[in-house]
Amino acid sequence: MRADDIRLLVDYSYAATGRVLDAAARLTPEQFTGPPLIRGANSPRDILVHVLDAESSWRERLRTGGQSDAPDLDPTDFPDPPALSRAWSTDEGQMRAWLATLDDDAVLAPVHRNRPLWQYLVHVVNHGTQHRAETAMILTHWGQSPGDLDLSFYLRGWSDD
User: Fold this and answer.
1) CA distance 52 to 2
2) Is 161 part of a structural domain of the chain?
3) In a structure prediction context, what are the per-residue pLDDT tens digits for the chain, which is 161 residues long?
4) Residue 55 lies inside a defined structural domain of this protein
5) In the beta sheet, which residues pair with residue 112?
6) Which one of 34, 68, 94, 113 is CB 3.0 to 4.6 Å from 61, fit for a cystine?
7) Could you tell me the CATH number of the domain that includes residue 19?
8) What distances in angstroms separate CA 9 from CA 1, 5, 99, 119, 128, one per listed residue?
9) Among positive and negative, which fits the CA dihedral 151, 136, 17, 54?
């Protein structure tokens, strides 16, 4: 795995998240924050805040060698999709700034349990993929599908539009 490969996956992840956030912005406030449609699930807001929190936490742990004492994000701090989008944009800038400092040697270097950095970063992207899919299902139920979110569609320029 090369540093540019990681950056490509992160680019895709942010683009896919943007599509989900755009679709979420078309929900009513009750649909965005309300009770889950499926027992054991969460609202679109709660799911998306969890993803943002995980991305931020992982970045800080990996960037600092395991030191991250930031408190968990509180979904109630994000009353609507624009508030969440603004926070995500800020966090994205921090992630991209850190990733820009990484070269191939850095992503291949072991960081924890003798696993290379790239494996943790792929986990972060994959975690987001799982939860975007869950959110997309809820959005589709409410008539606001974000469209195809597959990496192959992103690589083709989201040709499903």
Assistant:
1) 24
2) no
3) 999 999 999 999 999 999 999 999 999 999 999 987 777 779 999 999 999 999 999 999 999 987 777 889 999 999 999 999 999 999 999 999 999 999 999 999 999 889 999 999 999 999 999 999 999 999 999 999 999 999 999 999 986 55
4) yes
5) 115
6) 68
7) 1.20.120.450
8) 11, 6, 11, 12, 11
9) negative
**CA 151 to CA 154: how far, in whole Å?**
5
Whether the pTM exceeds 0.85: the reply is yes
Domain membership of residue 160 (yes or no) is: no
The total of structural domains in the chain comes to: 1
Residue 10: give the domain boundaries: 3-155
Structure tokens at 75: 């979904």
In Å, how far are 46, 65, 157 from 88, measured between CA atoms? 14, 23, 22
